[in-house]
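[step 3/7] fold_predict: job queued, chain A
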Amino acid sequence: MTLKQMLVEMLNRKASDLHIRVGIRPNLRVNGKLEQIATDPLTIDSMDQIVSQILNEKQRERFDRKNEMDLALSVAKLGRFRINLFRQRGTTGIAVRAVNTQVPSFDDLNLPGVVKDIAELHRGLVVVTGTTGSGKSTTLAAVIEQMNAHRPLNIITVEDPIEYIYRDKKSVIAQREVGGDTESFAAALRHAFRQDPDVILIGEVRDLETMSIALTAADTGHLVLTTLHTLNVVETITRIVSFFPPHQHQQIRLLLAGTLKTIMCQRLIPRSDMPGRVPAIEAMVSTGAIRECLLDPEKTNEIPDLIAGGNVQYGMQTFDQSIMKLYKQGMISFEEAMANATNPDDFDLRLKGITGAADRWGDTGGKSKDDEEESSTPDWGHSEMRDMPGFNKF
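[step 4/7] structure written:
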């Protein structure tokens, strides 16, 4: 098969990814699972032909020198694709991701209301995290498009590679691709300060310099949106701090407490009501109590409890709260809910209506007010949270 035939098959089967290796048949990822394409295994010659269809002469020289490369490819009448080329066992491997040319809306993506609030922010740091293929770029694209449609802003994106193409509406958007328009994320960000940005989107933070500039930009009044490959809110905070040497950790925590607005962590779960996947999202919004936990490393692990308790007033939610909503709405099966829950045993008990005194789900589990008052209450140490309207005192 030619590359174009593979891409057609990819779109026809609504696959998210295409994996091409020498010696095996091409594989598609359909609803999170790998499926083979019924064709002959690829030879070295056929792989070289495919590479020559993707790369121009300058790109081929760069790939031969570095042995790996990211780029975007537009194919007439098919769409846009994100491509990674790499070497494995002396031969070339290719991973292709289909990119929807139409930026989806919040409703299309089934995102919680806290994501819509991001599009109204004026300054600070927003981090969207998750594993590869969890929809981080798509979520940020929906946020940028919402801003583009409703706010007059100067938006600068630095991506590797560019995935979604934006058309200027109320905003002015400059999209810069690493390797083509700029040497690196850090180089682009250093110059972005002189380009009068309101919003800066960083495709991914990969090193200390990029994270340092991102925090500086957020601290100087810009809105910075970026992604990390972390699994939950606490791990994200730890990862950001760990970019820096130990003697700077308290300074970085102080900076985070002043600039961090939202952390969103995503997992894609196969749907049971229709083909496709739906995101389960852990969402943290900066509050006074959250900022205290950011400042004190010994209190950082209390953040999941604050997220669970801030569901009603702030729209925050843990992964298990998000998964519970998806299950009750009939979007995912019980098996998928249990497989993706952070605490499967607690989740199963919750479904059966059994709750403990230290219930973190944002309700009392059917207890009376007297029972709540007699239950053991965790020592939060945050008067703001104890007095917060709607906060569960267990």
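[step 5/7] annotate
Residues 136-150 form the longest helix (15 residues).
The domain at 3-99 is CATH 3.30.450.90 (Beta-Lactamase).
exit 0
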